[in-house]
Amino acid sequence: MKAAIISLGSVSSKWTRDAMKKYFDSVKNLNLKHIEVNLGSGQDPILYKGEPLEKFDCVYAKGSFKYAMLLRAITSFFSDKAYMPIKDNAFLTVHDKIVTHQELQRHGIPMPKTYLSSGIDAAKEILKKINFPVIMKFPQGTQGKGVMYAESYPSASSLLDALETLKQPVLIQEYIESGERDIRALVVGDRVVAAMERKAVKGEKRANIHMGGKGKAINLDVKSRKIAIKTAAAVGAEICGVDLLRSAKGPVVIEANLSPGLQGITEATGIDVADRIAHYLYQKTKEFVEKEQKMNGDRILPDAGIFNSDKEQQIITGLDFRGDRILLPELVTKMTGLKDDDQVEISAKKGFLKIKKFDVKEV
Description:
Elements: E1 2-7, H1 11-20, E2 26-31, E3 35-37, E4 46-48, E5 51-52, E6 58-61, H2 68-78, H3 90-94, H4 97-106, E7 114-116, H5 120-127, E8 134-137, E9 147-150, H6 153-163, E10 171-174, E11 181-188, E12 191-199, E13 214-217, H7 222-235, E14 239-247, E15 250-257, H8 263-269, H9 273-300, E16 320-322, E17 325-327, H10 330-336, E18 344-349, E19 352-357
């Protein structure tokens, strides 16, 4: 199987690429900066260094918020052509804190109280109604950048005055007292494969490793684990870093990260996180390829005249469920010749199902 990792070439990406080489037949490392997307030009839609991209079975794309639109376009192209652990819409969701908060709120995931204003004057009105200290942050930004702490109304108001020239919206968020500590949970699939507690350096409120924070391994409690997994699923990512705080009311989510750094959490926990990611990618890609091969096999059957025969045909296949309902293979639909306005007679018992077109003449 062939895989590609599309990134900005960070150490974490290189670790993941090297780990993937143990499982995949080939792994290409593609620099995001060299990818070109052609829209409506009639040419190959995705080019790398001016050349069409080859076919891959797995595409793991990630990068900073500056490339959110490009990542979304790339993954949209590959959505039905390769296995991808991150859905195309996840990049626009996670790389905008406003949209992230809305999505998490929609899924009932606990977060600190957050306010968004239309401008500086409106923001100052909000500050008059809430308790201090507060956290102020820009909608875009990672690794703790663009996050400010204000312990009083005058300091918050002064920060807003300074930010006015940037003409950017500002999020105002309640401050959760956590002893300058937060939790990074790394979600892979439906599991938290590693978790660490990060403590900020003296005089700093941000516990991010990139801001000098120090991490130590922890056994994440069940509730926090479930919240982290639910957060990753809510934003459309099977591989995701989720940051949490322990509040008086329980764990709350403060951020999701589609390109989590692996150095700090690997050092803190002793877990080979890159290998956990690579093995998961291999298993999911294998499932994707096997499903594609089965579908391609189904497409070959018409050439054997199976759809032109009135004789009863039998096939052996797996079942596809949509929620609690069985979705019959497309092949079966074509074999029966049934249409959406046909009435059918269904006979069923445990381990048995028969569907027959209902003929009024036989009644």
